[in-house]
Amino acid sequence: MKIIFEKTSIEKLKAQAYIFLCYQDKKLFSEELRLIEELLNCKIASISLEDFEGKEKQTVLVYTDKHRIILSGLGLKEKLTLEKVRKATARGIKKVKSHKIKTVAVEILQDLTLKGVEIEDITRAQTISSLLALYSFDKYYTKKDDQEIHYIKEIILFSQYNSLGKYAKEIQEGIRSGTVIGESTNMARDLGNEPSNVMFPAELAKRVQALARLNKFSAQILNKSQIEKLGMRGVLGVAQGSEHEPKFIIMEYKGGKKNDKPYVVVGKGVTFDSGGISIKPSAGMAMMKLDMGGAAAVVGIFNAITQLDLKLNVIGLIPCVENMPDGKAFKPGDVIKAYNGLTIEVDNTDAEGRLILADALSYASKYKPAAVIDLATLTGASVIAIGSVASIVMGNDQKLIDQIITAGDQTYDRVWQLPLWDEYDKMIDSEIADVRNSGVVKQAGTILAGMFLKRFIGDYPWAHLDIAATAMRSSETDYDPKNATGSGVRLVTQYLMNESNKLKK
Ligand code: BES
Ligand code: ZN
Ligand code: ZN
Questions:
Q1: pTM, to two decimals
Q2: Residue 472 phi, psi (nearest 5)
Q3: Structurally, what CATH architecture does the domain formed by 187-504 represent?
Q4: Residue 320 CA to ligand 2 centre (angstroms)
């Protein structure tokens, strides 16, 4: 997919379709239609304002004597937000997706009335939402006619106003970074959507190595005997019932100065979570091939930060396992010892994510990190608590958490904070070991998972992102598809971009 900026006059674009973003305002709207006719030197076949008023969620395809024009509603001008621009762009793109259109031109919304939002941000947002809206996972269809084929090969961003030419540099930068972030999110979606008979720990490791060869980062894969030597018995315990050996993936990007403390991103990589001996109900179990959404996000984040050339040192850690029931599987009541020496009573083998993260988070200490962020599809309770609208953030450092909340607001890959108060701590005490992997009472499931992780944190600022609610969807939204969404890629990449930008100033 190619996305380019065209600053010359619009009739030279030679696009097969044009997407214009329209406000819900009769006067502005009729002016816009007149402008379109003038710019494209065409006549729009009449459009009824009953069909289209520029309201949010409204899109309409109109034909001129020469072109196809898609009008996509932004709602009221005074209520404009960057997210409404993303959504209107995505809806416009989706409208042309099923037509045999190769080149589509998208209007850059030139509205600089949004506070703190530059033209580069608008262009980045529109680039990302276009790429996300075009995503589909269709590699396993053998009869290509049976599913939606996407013809769009090129998106041209343009402006109705020649004055935008003076922002060419900013627009190009928005397109470049937007393309990287959009494609990295789609990459995470692809990894997630792979079925678990294809995507198991060794396969994810192979894909990370292949990606490292293309990018400026290194990848080291620890195999089972190396994991044993290190004493990561959380990873080993969960993997015990699977035919697939666990892998511990270490990625290293050196964009900063030699002695800069690294940022560490950790991703839960459970390629299939059957629940193990504490087996899950069969309804909906297929979704648990997406239980490596955190790991997929870390891979996407690495793809993004290396291509964006961020001036930071970043380490990626992915403990990767499959959680299966078996004669050899670990069992409820077992006691295992994590990498940092703490003993864990496994009360429930389905609370496996926190066991592998315990090893990875305590292992992270060796890097003396500037900050550690973990991403995990950790608790069903987070879906109940907040629904698929945002991820949950918790941690031990309010400054870091606030920076992540800001990055969430910037990208709309949002987070909402839950507390890790001391009162919760005793709820994961065990009568036989240092800690228990599930709560004594069935309360505060998401927080207790966070409290569990907190026991394995070293001396570093830490934020835990429970992305269970956002990483997988049962139905599509404007620019998120059904199934894997790649949530966390835009969020953490933006956070790291913000950190990198601070160094420039
Ligand atoms: N992978 C699941 C969490 C999950 C559930 C993610 C639904 C996405 C959608 C996790 O390993 C799990 O099973 N957690 C248990 C923990 C419980 C046993 C303490 C849960 O949430 O029920
Ligand atoms: Zn589980
Ligand atoms: Zn899980």
A1: 0.97
A2: -135, 135
A3: 3-Layer(aba) Sandwich (3.40)
A4: 13
